[in-house]
Design a protein that fits this description.
single chain; mainly beta; Metal Binding Protein, Guanine Nucleotide Exchange Factor, Chain A; eight-stranded mixed sheet; three-stranded antiparallel sheet; 4% helix
Length: 143
């Protein structure tokens, strides 16, 4: 099991993650792209139980996504750096901003979601799965 540490740009917020990421992705939805100043959100998804704040208290910004489900973004009130997101559709997970993790070199993008929203000039990671919208739902279990 891996351990990762991270935080914001100014150091007011610090956190630790005990566990491996479940998925590393780039989200090109209009909300993430706007939040990140035109770039997709590069994110690593972890079990929520792997996460612990070790310094500071982030601010929150809550909205409803295009799906109608809740999105709560957590960021540093001092420097504005994005930190993590809680998604109503993934209640047991935390979606970490890859750039908030101290050693984010190991978080290669494995999937692009909402790729249909990406600007024509965006370069996609070769070999990564690419979905025009969100991840497809898992296949139905046989009865």
């Amino acid at each position: 099991m891996a351990r990762f540490d991270g935080g914001c740009l100014c150091g007011a917020i610090r956190f630790s993650l005990d566990g491996d990421s479940r998925m590393n992705l780039a989200c090109h939805c209009s909300d993430c792209t706007r939040y990140n100043g035109g770039a997709p959100a590069y994110e690593a998804v972890f079990e929520r139980t792997a996460f612990q704040l070790t310094r500071g208290s982030p601010r929150e910004y809550a909205i409803k996504g295009d799906s109608g489900r809740g999105i709560v973004r957590h960021f540093c009130a001092e420097c504005g750096a994005p930190l993590y997101v809680h998604l109503e559709k993934l209640p047991r997970h935390i979606v970490m901003a890859a750039g908030a993790i101290d050693d984010f070199d190991s978080f290669a993008v494995k999937a692009h979601i909402f790729a249909a929203s990406a600007p024509a000039w965006h370069m996609f990671v070769p070999g990564a799965d690419t979905f025009p919208g969100d991840f497809p739902p898992p296949p139905a279990k046989a009865s």
